[in-house]
Amino acid sequence: MRRPKSCCYTSWTPGTLPRTRIGFCLQGVVEQCRDSIRRIDNLVALRADYRTRVAECGGSARLMSLVDGLFSSPLLTIPQVAASTSVTYPTAKKDVVRLVKLGILAEGEPHKLPRHFYSPQIFDIAYGEP
What global pTM score does this model have? Predict the structure, then answer.
C-alpha cells in the first residue's frame, strides 16, 4: 500500500528545516528556544550584578537570600519578607529600603496596602518583548 502524499513527507537535509507545516512549527520552536536561552543568560547576568551590588555595600547573607528569591518571585511585600526571613517588620522594611536604594527593587502602587515592591529589570527580561 502506498502512503498518501502529505506535507509531512519531504526530503530533509541536516541543517535545514523542511518547507512544510511541520518545518514552520519547528522553526517557531527553534526561535522560542533561542529567545529562552537569551532571557536565561540575561537573568543569570542580572543575578550576578545584583549579588555584586549587595556585596559591595556590605549586605548580609539575608539580603543575598532576598536577592536570590527575587528570581523565583520578583514581587514582594514587607510582611512577606519578615515572614520568609524570620525577622521583625522594621528589619524587613530596612532590608527592602536598602534594595530600593541599590536599584534592585522599585515600589509598585504607592497608595496600595500592603506596599508591594518588584524588580523592574527581572520583569523586563522575563516578560518584555524579545
Answer: 0.77
Q: Per residue in 92-123, pLDDT tens?
A: 999 999 999 999 999 998 788 889 999 999 99
* Residue range 21-127 in CATH 1.10.760.10: no
Q: Exposure of 44 by Cβ count < 10 A (0-12 exposed, 13-18 middle, 19+ buried)?
A: exposed
Strand partners of residue 116: 77
The answer to whether 69 and 84 are in contact (CB under 8 A) is yes
Ordered by start, the domain boundaries in the chain are 21-127
Strand partners, 1: none
Give the burial class of 66: count Cβ atoms within 10 A of its Cβ; 0-12 exposed, 13-18 middle, 19 or more buried: buried
